[in-house]
Amino acid sequence: KQEVTQIPAALSVPEGENLVLNCSFTDSAIYNLQWFRQDPGKGLTSLLLIQSSQREQTSGRLNASLDKSSGRSTLYIAASQPGDSATYLCAVRDDKIIFGKGTRLHILP
Amino acid sequence: GAVVSQHPSRVICKSGTSVKIECRSLDFQATTMFWYRQFPKKSLMLMATSNEGSKATYEQGVEKDKFLINHASLTLSTLTVTSAHPEDSSFYICSARDRSGRAHNEQFFGPGTRLTVL
To answer: Which letter does DSSP use for residue B88 in this model?
Structure first.
């Protein structure tokens, strides 16, 4: 049974710092891995989607990597801003999409 | 880009009533739609997979008679919470998979529906 774990559960960093969010999954037989952002009480915003054949994707200040063999992904946020404060969810897809519990990120002004 | 809408975005109802939530794919056809539930400060949990023209597949622990799913067309799936109780209060999110195969069968998520049962 696929399980997705995100570490840390919560993170507070000063504005301007670079940071890394971690995601691990137990079954490497995935189609893709996706990172989402969720603001309080809101729906999901897709940030980056990495296909199983890819190793990373970049969008602006965000970079996501995927190491399928080790069951790990990281989301790198460069030059963090207060507007980046949100919960970041990692999700893997095999025949279903399984979500991690998320990392609550707080960027301190 | 692919857009999924949900209606209503927020609903408050009395205990014992039924509530219907709609999920629509606006610019693509989806043979498969998914319904998720998210309790406060918890992750999204898949409730059921909705297939157009056939019965939904429910995850373990989800009561199919309580959460009725209908996927009558390639662009619409509905979730009806029957005889709602306060413990059903949650954030319900749907997603749809593009049947055309573009975007590698990526799932697109709706904005969610906040259900509060008094």
So the answer is: G
